Amino acid sequence: MLKLKIETLSKEAFAPFGDLIASEGHDFFMINNGSTRRYHRLAEVETGAEGTPIISIFRAQTLPMPLRVRMMERHPLGSQAFIPMRGKPFLILVAPPGDDLTSSRLRAFYSDGTQGVNYRPGVWHHPILALTDQDEFLVVDRAGPGNNCDEFFFDDSEEIMLNPEL
Ligand SMILES: NC(=O)N[C@@H](O)C(=O)O
Ligand code: NI
């Protein structure tokens, strides 16, 4: 059995997978006559030449925890950002891009609810892992032609567990 370690989310730790979207620890400049901080260009939306960036809201059910991880997915044609809308913590499970996904390459992170993430195109990730039922996330990703969602299923012989209590 593989028990995944859950890491604290940081810009540096998440860098192999994409961008951290958070004000804490980021530079800013003042706008609106000095009344507003602009935490500028925290992430870039990638959609390819034929894609269109879109904004959606995901309202997510919690999955039973501890979770047995059975699959991952990736979006080869575009990035995908998840920004928590209610300040609730959630989990992120990712693996580097490439066709050689193995359970040993999985990395799990805990967002404290003030941090969102932007997956770079092709980065493997688990569908949203809300820790509060019916939590809502602002999602910025790609609409457009072509197959933009590959799924990978781990072999049944692999027991991969994600437990936020650990
Ligand atoms: N399928 C979809 O719109 N969402 C997934 O890509 C996901 O990462 O939750
Ligand atoms: Ni996705």
UniProtKB/TrEMBL annotation:
Pathway: Nitrogen metabolism; (S)-allantoin degradation. The keyword rRNA processing does not apply. InterPro entries: RmlC_Cupin_sf, UAH_cupin, Ureidogly_lyase, Ureidogly_lyase_bac, Ureidoglycolate_lyase_dom_sf. It catalyses: (S)-ureidoglycolate = urea + glyoxylate. One of its GO terms (biological process) is allantoin catabolic process. Its EC number is 4.3.2.3. Gene3D superfamilies: Ureidoglycolate hydrolase (2.60.120.480). Its cofactor is Ni(2+). Keywords: Hydrolase, Lyase, Purine metabolism. Pfam families: Ureidogly_lyase. GO terms for molecular function: ureidoglycolate hydrolase activity; ureidoglycolate lyase activity. It is an enzyme of class 4 (lyase). Belongs to the ureidoglycolate lyase family. Catalyzes the catabolism of the allantoin degradation intermediate (S)-ureidoglycolate, generating urea and glyoxylate. Involved in the utilization of allantoin as nitrogen source. Homodimer. This is Ureidoglycolate lyase. The gene is allA.
